[in-house]
Amino acid sequence: MDTPTHDPIAASGRARGFLSGAREIDDARVDIRGTLPSWLRGTHLLNGPALWELPGGRHEHWFDGYAMWHALRIADDGVRYRSRFALSDAYRRSSAAGMPVFGEFGSPNPAGLLTRLRSPQVTDNPAVVMSRHGDRWLSVTETPFLTYFDPDTLETQERLDLGHGDEVMHLMSAHGFTLADGSYLNLATALGRRCEMKLFRLRPGSARPEVLGRIAMPRSGYTHGFGLAPGHALIWETALRAQPLAFRFGSRSYAGNFRWEPRDGSAIHAVALDTGGVRTWRIPPIMAFHCTQAWGDGNDLVLELAVYDDAAVFDDLRLDRRRAGAPLKSLPRHVRYRLRADHRDADPEAIAGPAIELQQVHPWRVGRRRAQVCWGGGNGEHGEFSDRTHRIDLDGGGVSSWQRPQAIQLEPLFVPRPGGEGDDDGVLLVPTLADADDATVIGVLDARSMECLAELRTPQIVPFGFHAAFRFH
Ligand SMILES: [Fe+2]
């Protein structure tokens, strides 16, 4: 498919990462400066929005652009780059129409009232998270469509629509988990007079979700992810509440169908993976995208989150503000919630160190045991957007950081060294774009020392995305 044309829109320096214009590239050489670890062999997969403008209309929010996948194949003889648009319904139909056909996260639904009344118009644009399901790969946004793709060729494969099966599902968390047997675990929401959140499992090769647990509530909270502790899923209910009728019939954007309702506070639910039993703890009202990790500590469960005290972060991440380099108005706090068996309220505790986002721990610890180290993107002292990478010692509070001058640097993807022991034995892969860069530079850092071992210079500006993945060969 030809890449649609778009209107030129101004952004300079590092903000060029918020522009459309990335091309589908078949097989290009990636320059390596420095030395890659000899064990780092595999494919670094990146995903994110890449096209916000069509001839007849444009999107308004960073999260809205049509998804492009990027693959850096790291082999003994060098690194090669490939990119492809995800051939979602949203991309294909909007490209053919020359204008957006679906509403997206921060852009209104352009469908007319009669069309909306006939059937909900829901985007499947898989620009947010890539996950493994069995030996296959899928990509999702926050709706119950799973778009499978080939991680070598980046060709789009079939799309699984979980919204039209036996279980009603209208929304879905972007972040699922791959269990040890290859099952895909995720969380869907059925909207209605009462909402129901459904923790479900897709076994390898299966297209039929098995519901492991259900949580009923008057109005579900905006849900981007959840935590996985041994034996439990930990689900935080934000105070950004879904408005079911608006989702069903309205013309607002996805985010516009939620309303900040702090009066009733927020909650954390623990769903037992074996019995489906649910326990709930109250917390003050929060908004949160990402958990750092979850674990069990004796009879307690513990959840670490990057939390916001309101929903202003959505406005911060609008394209006009990001392309203009506007300072952030809303900054997260890093909070540890302890869920005691005999308490109704969770005990929050500030985690020492700076605020982080797009944070993570060693992936082989997730759902197994607590990790002592995490990494994430940090913001500047004056609200500069994601311009540094932090390593935080979760026991001692020690912080070390890596920063390219005048750059935006996003999610630090931790890749563990096979056979390694420590929670930080591996590298971080950090996509960056500095004011003076011609194209995206991926920093390869020693995850313990935060020393930059190598830089991978990709053949184009990879538009800023959210989450990456690494596939060992
Ligand atoms: Fe995310």
From TrEMBL:
GO terms for molecular function: carotenoid dioxygenase activity; metal ion binding. Pfam families: RPE65 (PF03055). Keywords: Dioxygenase, Iron, Metal-binding, Oxidoreductase. It comes from the Bacteria. Its cofactor is Fe(2+). InterPro entries: Carotenoid_Oase (IPR004294). One of its GO terms (biological process) is carotene catabolic process. Fe cation binds at residues 175, 224, 290, 467. Binds 1 Fe(2+) ion per subunit. The keyword Acyltransferase does not apply. Belongs to the carotenoid oxygenase family. This is Carotenoid cleavage dioxygenase-like enzyme. It comes from Quisquiliibacterium transsilvanicum.
